[in-house]
Structure formats: structure tokens, C-alpha cells
């Protein structure tokens, strides 16, 4: 199928479904980041100190250093906002998906839903191995494999410019 200057083989329903998923995940990241920014005194300290699982010592040590904790808070707040905004509007969505997967993996590893770790007040619901973070990681992997922002996001303008630049370079090489 051809849509404008970008060629793709997705049906209209596939484009809609992929875009809808990207926008929903983007909204989730954006909202979570904004809530943290606009909540007075928000910090990840309690979350880090309560972590469980194989990386608990690492997360707890991060909470012990004021400098590292401030970095964690800053990257958490603004990372969520920027990833969310990027996914929501479909701009630079490929790196945002990768960074989102890394961030969600850290959340997953801080509170892995593994048997024998007990319950934790920082975790909502009852999970066994699969939780919402792992599902959202899988969704971002799916969006990485089947991208839609080059069709329905601002990435389509970057893709068009890159294709034109590549075409111009090839034309120049052929003329010499």
C-alpha cells in the first residue's frame, strides 16, 4: 500500500491498531511522568528502598546516595514525560521505545513478581511472573517490530527527508 510518499504493507486496521497502542502507551508514560513532576516532594526513595529480588541491593544503594537519588528522580520524571510525549506524537519513537523498554525493565526488576518474594505495598494487584510492566515491555517490542509512527506520527516527516537525502546521494554518485 502507498500512503503519501511512504510505502508500507499495513492494512488500515493494522495502522489504526498499532497507532492506538503507541498512543495509549505514550499517554501512560506521559501521565505517569507528569504526576511525579507535579506531586510536591515526590521521590523514588521509598520505591527503591522497598525493592525485592535479585537487584534489591543495587536499588536500595541508589536510595542511600542523595546525589544518585536526585538523578534517579530527575531521569524518572523527565524520562517518562519525554518517552511518553515521543510515543504519543510519534516523533523519535524508535529510540523512545528502546529507552521505554529499559525503564520498564528496571521497574520489573525492582519488584519482580517471582514466587517466594512475598507481598509488597508498592505493587498493585497479585501477579506471578507476568505483571503490567512485562506486558508493556512486550507491547513496546511489538511496536518496535511493527512501527507505525512513520505512517501516522511525526516520524513520517523525518523518514521522508531521510529517503530524499538517500535518493539525492545515490543520484549524485551515479552522475559522477
Automatic annotation (TrEMBL):
Species per Swiss-Prot/TrEMBL record:
Mariniphaga sediminis
Question: What's the protein called, per UniProt?
Answer: DoxX family membrane protein
Keywords carried by this UniProt record? Membrane, Transmembrane, Transmembrane helix
Please indicate which superkingdom the organism of origin belongs to: Bacteria
- Transmembrane annotation, as ranges: 12-30, 67-91, 98-114, 134-154
Amino acid at each position: 500500500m502507498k500512503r503519501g510518499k511512504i510505502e508500507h504493507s499495513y492494512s488500515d486496521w493494522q495502522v489504526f491498531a498499532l497507532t492506538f497502542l503507541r498512543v495509549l502507551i505514550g499517554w501512560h508514560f506521559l501521565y505517569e511522568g507528569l504526576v511525579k513532576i507535579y506531586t510536591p516532594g515526590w521521590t523514588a526513595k521509598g520505591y527503591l528502598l522497598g525493592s525485592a529480588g535479585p537487584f534489591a541491593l543495587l536499588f536500595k544503594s541508589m536510595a542511600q546516595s542523595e546525589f544518585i537519588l536526585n538523578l534517579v528522580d530527575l531521569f524518572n520524571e523527565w524520562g517518562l514525560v519525554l518517552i511518553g510525549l515521543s510515543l504519543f506524537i510519534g516523533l523519535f519513537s524508535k529510540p523512545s521505545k528502546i529507552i521505554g523498554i529499559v525503564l520498564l525493565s528496571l521497574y520489573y526488576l525492582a519488584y519482580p513478581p517471582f514466587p517466594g518474594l512475598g507481598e509488597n505495598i508498592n505493587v498493585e494487584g497479585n501477579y506471578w511472573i507476568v505483571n503490567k510492566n512485562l506486558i508493556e515491555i512486550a507491547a513496546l517490542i511489538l511496536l518496535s517490530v511493527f512501527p507505525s509512527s512513520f505512517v501516522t506520527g511525526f516520524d513520517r516527516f523525518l523518514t521522508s527527508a531521510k529517503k530524499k537525502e538517500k535518493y539525492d546521494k545515490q543520484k549524485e554518485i551515479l552522475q559522477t
